[in-house]
Amino acid sequence: MDGMSAIIAEFLAESVENLDSMDSDLVALEKDPSSTEVIERIFRTIHTIKGTCGFLAFGKLEAVTHSAETVLAHLRDHKLELTVEITTTLLKAVDSVREILAHIEEDGTEGDGDYSEIEKELDAVDQSVTSRKIETSAEDEVGALAQEDPDSEPKPITTQSLGEEVTPETAKRDLGSKDSNAAEDSATPTVGESSLRVDISVLDLLMNLVGELVLSRNQISQNLSPESDPGLITASQQLDSITGELQEVVMRARMQPISSILSTLPRFVRDLAIASGKEVEIELEGQDTDLDKSVLEAIKTSLLHLVRNAVDHGIEAPEEREAVGKPRIGRISLRAAHEGGNVTIEARDDGKGLDSERILERALSAGLLNSEEAGELSRSQIEQFVFRPGFSTAREVTNVSGRGVGLDVVRTNVESIGGTIEMQSEPKQSTTFRIKIPLTLAIVSVILVRSGGQRFALPQASVVELVRLGRGDKELGIEKLHGVPVYRLRGRLLPLVTMSEQLGLSSSEIHQEDSIIVLQGDNRQFGLLVESIDDSQEIVVKPLGTRLAGLPFAGATILGDGSITLILDVFRIGLAAGVVSDARVRSLTADPTAPSHPTPGLKRVLLLQGSDDERMALDLSRVSRLESLERNRIEHVGDNLVVQYRGEILPIIDLQRALPERRTTRRSEASANADEASVVICTIEGRSCGLLVHRILDIVDADLSDSTSGSREGIQACSVIEGRINEIIDLAAVVQLADPSFFARNESTGGKT
Amino acid sequence: MNDRKQYCTLKVGELLLGIEVGQIQEILRDTSTTPVPLANAAIRGLINLRGQIVTAIDLRRRAGLEDADEGSPFMTMVLGSAEEPLALVVDTVGDVVEVDASAFESPPDTLKGEARRMIEGAYKLDRELLLVLNLAVVLDLKDSAKEPVE
């Protein structure tokens, strides 16, 4: 019986593979019904399954495939025009076949499903052809009957040939139908001689063993010293290079082209489009991009999700599209490509984009932010709300404006394998999602750190930069903002998490934390305070047991010295510390660790230095970012300055020029000559603009209650901050001064209230 | 014919415990464990067993006993039957004893709390009572930490 089950296993594996390609073939055929090559391929697949299952005594499967084959034969002979209905029927038949195959795989039987309906549907299609043919020509009828029962021999080849012109196609087909009952024949697509089917568990085992080999090699090379036996050293070096090569080859063996998960998409899109009354085409690019099997599995559902979103919410109904001057058929494009050690997948649709107003409305009603904050958000900031957990489930939003369905899940999935996801949307034009994922999960490079006297590994993918604090720096750099330690990194406040505290380890007196690892988790950066940063290494990730689930560790590894090191899950540690989960939009003002309005009376302001060494201050709640831009990026458009910033055109206002001059003293030109310009990105009335300033000094909490009124236009007041007189900038007035049409434009473009 | 069973004996504190020999893969001495912060208190840490990472459960802590004095010797029993690599850290591992299955008794009433739940039954040996561990309970850490010791 063993031989039999082996045959069945082989049959199943091959059939499933062929069926997957058949889905896309059918959809392709619908677009180009004249493609004889494609229809031949579909016909052969069904034919092979039919032949084999007859031989293996799977009656139901044979019946379904037989009916499907009959219809396909008509199509092949151009006796039948492929319509949407027929394609749907055929796809349904494929689904039935798949269902039966799944059953066979499970328990060896065909299951008790009833497939008479699909058979009837197929037969009805067949009937329509046959009856039509009876009226027209007797020859064709014989031909059709012959097709219906390919078992009947001899074939009426001559009759058929009389009715039709003999072409290479018909000749080939006749050859094909002669051996129709032989299960395996030369026409069947068989696996080429150069490839071999290998059980995935064997590959996994191989990968594990290579992992062990890497560790043993590390151990040997670490125990060698220059004084060691020269022969041993040479052998060790050789072992080193062979191991490296072996590792690479095994990794490659686990790679699969991304087409293995993309091939189902055309069918998926077609079904969705028909169900929602839309016309959508999907375009796949870079299908041969290789990815580790485990990574592929991990992103499969996320990709389906994005595509579903695009069809459901992105692409408009055909009439709607025509009304706005777009082609009737919506396009979704999916591009995969290698980029360094990563793979990027870009999913783009030319639908209506995101409706930021609806999103904002929804965010407001869900209490994710208050109306005051809302006015200060830029478009892209608002759009980020769709990644919020829970945001998506709101029905009103997803139906009317929204995208959102489970985008937080997509993001979590992508991030759980060390990837990132970005979104870009142009209203009424397009939405693009860009996923970046590592090639493999099994071997990762990590940074080894020490905390609480213990060694831990941090995946390098999430590390942004390392900062080492000198002893003297320590007091300077780290400060407490409302009880939360923060570090001022190039003008930005970085919330800090002390690793030993988070892990409940006692921080030893001798080892003071003096290194900061800037990490990226959940689109937000935070700093992890550790005692020391030791080394970076390539390690093999080993899973932790179920009894250690739910901890902020992604796995463990064995280092060269045989010791075990836990691999930190950056996202979860940030979550536990409350620096990544907070529902506020990331910006300086909405720093999760600090309330935006600290103590009553105190206001957080950005201190600026003018070119005359005068001091100015700007309400920080207006500020969304501080940037240092190359001066040559700032361009002139008419009288105005603009810069291309994050895919948008950002108007730039030169603060010094905008403010009316108070005195006519020398104005230092130093700043104009510098290569870098300090730009404060502000949000006003829902729009962004950049304030070109001479120098950014600091961010402080200032008491503005004791101030005098401003002495010139654009200045709200004057106040003493840090012992010096500061002019408090009235942003709205400055913008008005510099560009009187700024607010007018805002209204005409339909911006927010 | 009497049904004979073989148990590997081990000690934690004053308790003489037994695990069926078939459940044990190997016994190690002087293993170094890597502690796992924030893990269940009964988890002593991770052991490197020839490249395999094994989760080690401290039987003393699991049974609600006090920790042994620092530096006192311990032994590690690697279990062979579990679905994932697991080990038990005990004070000492003793001989293998063979008992008559018919002599199996319910656990003594003097046992209390978590220790009571972990014992399947007992065998009277010549001088001592051998308590048979219910491994399924011992290895289930889900609610052990919350279980109040009576």
Considering the chains and any ligands shown, give keywords for the structure:
heterodimer; A: 753 residues; alpha+beta; Four Helix Bundle (Hemerythrin (Met), subunit A); Helix Hairpins; Heat Shock Protein 90; 5 domains; six-stranded mixed beta sheet; 30 strands; B: 150 residues; mainly beta; OB fold (Dihydrolipoamide Acetyltransferase, E2P); five-stranded mixed beta sheet; 10 strands; 43% strand; globular; disordered C terminus
Summarize the structure.
The complex is a heterodimer of chains A (about 750) and B (about 150). By secondary structure, chain A is α+β, with helices and mostly antiparallel strands.
CATH C-level class of chain B is Mainly Beta
Please state the second-level CATH architecture of the largest domain in chain A.
Answer: 2-Layer Sandwich
Within the largest sheet of chain A, what's the order of strands?
A: 10-14-15-13-12-11
Give the spatial strand order of the biggest sheet of chain B.
8-1-2-10-9
- Approximately what portion of the residues of chain A adopt beta-strand conformation? 25-35%
Biggest sheet record of chain B? 5 strands, mixed
Give the CATH class of the largest domain in chain A: Alpha Beta
Overall description:
The complex is a heterodimer of chains A (753) and B (150). With 753 residues, chain A is an alpha+beta fold. Chain A is built from 26 helices and 30 strands. Chain A has a six-stranded mixed β-sheet. In chain A, strands 27-19-20-30-29-28 form a six-stranded mixed β-sheet. Chain A has a six-stranded mixed β-sheet with strand order 21-25-26-24-23-22. In chain A, a hairpin with a 2-residue loop joins strand 4 and strand 5. The longest helix of chain A has 30 residues, at 2-31. Chain B has a single domain (4-139), classed as OB fold (Dihydrolipoamide Acetyltransferase, E2P), CATH 2.40.50.180. Helices cover 10% and strands 43% of the residues of chain B. Chain B has helices at 59-62, 113-118, 135-139; strands spanning 4-12, 15-20, 24-29, 43-49, 52-58, 75-79, 86-90, 92-100, 119-124, 129-133. In chain B, strands 8-1-2-10-9 form a five-stranded mixed β-sheet. In chain B, strands 3-6-7-5-4 form a five-stranded mixed β-sheet. In chain B, a hairpin with a 4-residue loop joins strand 9 (119-124) and strand 10 (129-133). The A-B interface holds A 211-212, 215-216, 452, 454, 503-505, 542, 544-548, 551-553, 556, 558, 562-566 and B 32, 34-40, 43, 46-48, 51, 53, 55, 57, 84-86, 139, 141.
